[in-house]
Design brief:
Mean pLDDT: 79
Largest sheet: 12 strands, antiparallel
Order of helices and strands: HHEEEEEEEEEEEE
Strand content: 35-45%
Strand order of the largest sheet: 6-5-4-3-2-1-12-11-10-9-8-7
Number of helices: 2
Distance between the termini: 76 Å
């Protein structure tokens, strides 16, 4: 599936909004094969992996982290998008969705989609950096000090990218990447159509027991007092 801003006839539902959000996060194009076990399996990637590249700070892929986004259209239709991170190694990682996974690679030139070679975020991380965007338009870094407030909180020092597609189907895509968090807001506009996704939460997964109940980490037992001098009570 190749999501676009143009709407089909009839009422688009949350699945349509989620598909658009996938595209804006850098997951446009056909989804990978569905892997239900991988979606809800316990995190099994590389912990603490890092590429050491400047762009990774704005697109971190921390193994096991779960991102929730609320989506909204100009018609007031709402949807939900959930992504889970799998980190293969210092250079490679995935965003896993119920419908499949999208793979990314950290390179000295920026973050790219592994299957297409298209940049999601290009270095240097500075205003004016340009590249061919995910939707075939011209993408650029518009700001590196943006502030934004979404349901997940208020973020500052964020990188904002803008991709503009001209021609007979003009469209504009804006993505906001915040340090040590990742994609916080994504939006697309074409004519009177407008859709937006905002981060509502991001965190490591809960420790769930086999019965589906959340397990709080066990508290350590109180420390024993050091032994006193011989003969002391």
């Amino acid at each position: 599936m190749s999501p676009e801003i143009d709407r089909p006839s009839g009422r688009p539902g949350p699945r349509r909004l989620a598909a658009l959000a996938l595209a804006l996060i850098g997951c446009g194009g056909a989804a990978g094969p569905a892997r239900p076990a991988a979606w809800n399996a316990a995190p099994d990637g590389q912990k603490g992996a890092t590429s050491g590249t400047p762009a990774e700070r704005y697109f971190p892929l921390v193994d096991g982290h779960i991102y929730h986004y609320a989506t909204l259209s100009e018609r007031g239709e709402q949807g939900l998008l959930v992504a889970r991170v799998h980190r293969a190694d210092g250079r490679r990682g995935e965003l896993r969705f119920p419908s499949g996974a999208k793979r990314f690679e950290f390179t000295p030139e920026g973050v790219i989609r592994s299957d297409t070679g298209v940049f999601v975020l290009k270095e240097p991380i500075a205003p004016g950096t340009t590249w061919t965007g995910e939707h075939g338009g011209r993408a650029r870094i518009a700001a590196v000090d943006a502030a934004i407030e979404v349901p997940a909180g208020r973020f500052t020092g964020c990188v904002q990218t803008v991709e503009e597609r001209l021609g007979d189907r003009p469209a504009r895509f804006v993505s906001t990447y915040c340090p040590d968090v990742g994609v916080v807001a994504i939006e697309a506009a074409s004519g009177a159509s407008y859709e937006r996704a905002e981060l509502t939460s991001y965190a490591p997964p809960f420790d769930m027991g086999p019965d589906g109940l959340r397990r709080a980490p066990a508290e350590p037992p109180p420390a024993e007092p050091p032994p006193g001098p011989a003969g002391a009570p």
